[in-house]
Design a protein that fits this description.
It is a single chain. The protein is of the alpha+beta class. It is built from eight helices and 13 strands. The strands form four sheets. Strands 4, 9, 10 and 11 form a four-stranded antiparallel beta sheet that branches. The longest helix is centred in the middle third of the chain and has 23 residues. The termini are far apart.
């Protein structure tokens, strides 16, 4: 028996099997012999592990404290912010001009909206999955949930203008801090650090030290620049390492791909600095992902999926700062 030595080993083994077994099963001279052998080859080996397309990580839940206290049936939520006027002064004996103290509150209302999708499968899909040992329903449910999480991530970042939901990265009450140098792709370490200091210090200055930022979020390219750029010729630290060790406020620096095109024009990078605290901002999720019983239609079933989101509740906008042009 002769073999083509240019063929892979698996093909050589298959050829040997085909030439030996074909006459025994009576297909050597049949017209469909090639098709039969083709299907036999497909059964030769099937990978038990599947490979899914990879997508960017959803980070809204990591960067924004979660508020799940709003009931799922609520169409809106309201929170109140109180301010006060409390002054005292020097008085004389029997004074009758004591200054009054005053407290007053302001209400802020946000909306809650539903998100939905569904997945379907037929009777035959179920039988095929059973035969192949594939968890069909589990796979489709995972895809449906991912759709909800992807939408939630976008809403948490940029809101949803059509329904009035407010996002974290483009809050209208926050004015971006101007850069000193900008263009970090070509700026040196000192120039980048000066921009960072201006961004971080703006929160401390604007709030008279009431709010102290602890987290800095950067677009991917800018994060990598800080992580690769050496602080100085005399230092073995990168700018990222040096800043975390030397800035008295910032404890966490991370990247978020949604910041790549988050500037005021929507086509450039934006840095975000903030105090990561539920007292400052919260992502309102009245209803986490849920699935309803399959609904039969002819020879198929559809599973409705549902969740609810109220956008980002920004209680103290001054505790958050943006910087474009980096």
């Amino acid at each position: 028996m002769e073999f083509d030595l240019d063929k892979p080993l698996s093909d050589l083994r298959f050829d040997a099997w085909a030439k030996r077994i074909a006459p025994e099963i009576g297909i050597a001279d049949r017209e469909d012999a090639n098709e039969t052998l083709f299907f036999a080859r497909q059964l030769e080996y099937v990978y038990s592990q599947t490979y899914d397309v990879k997508y960017p990580e959803f980070k809204a839940r990591l960067f924004i404290p979660l508020d799940s206290s709003v009931p799922t049936g609520a169409e809106s939520y309201t929170y109140r912010m109180f301010d006060e006027i409390a002054m005292a002064k020097m008085i004389a004996n029997y004074a009758d001009d004591l200054p009054d103290v005053t407290a007053f509150g302001t209400e802020f209302t946000g909306k809650c909206k539903s998100m939905g999708n569904a997945y379907s499968y037929s009777i035959q899909d179920i039988r095929r999955a059973q035969m192949a040992g594939m968890p069909l329903e589990t796979t489709l449910a995972r895809v449906a949930r991912r759709g909800h999480e992807a939408f939630l991530d976008q809403i948490a970042a940029f809101g949803h203008a059509a329904t009035g939901l407010v996002g974290f990265l483009n809050n209208p009450n926050i004015t971006p801090v101007s850069v000193i140098t900008g263009n970090w792709a070509s700026a040196n370490a000192d120039q980048i650090i000066a921009d960072l200091d201006k961004l971080v210090n703006s929160i401390v200055t604007n709030t008279n030290g009431i709010h102290v930022p602890d987290t800095l979020l950067l677009p991917i390219a800018q994060f990598l620049r800080l992580n690769n750029l050496q602080r100085s010729a005399a230092s073995d630290k990168t700018v990222l390492q040096w800043y975390l060790e030397n800035n008295p406020f910032i404890k966490n620096i991370d990247h978020w791909y949604l910041l790549d095109l988050a500037d005021a024009q929507g086509d450039g990078p934006r840095a975000v600095c903030y105090q990561r605290s539920p007292d400052v901002l919260q992502l309102v999720v009245p209803q986490e992902f849920e699935q309803f019983p399959p609904q039969a239609k002819n020879l198929a079933f559809s599973v409705p999926c549902h969740s609810r989101c109220g956008g980002v509740k920004m209680v103290y906008p001054l505790a958050v700062a943006y910087m474009d042009g980096i």
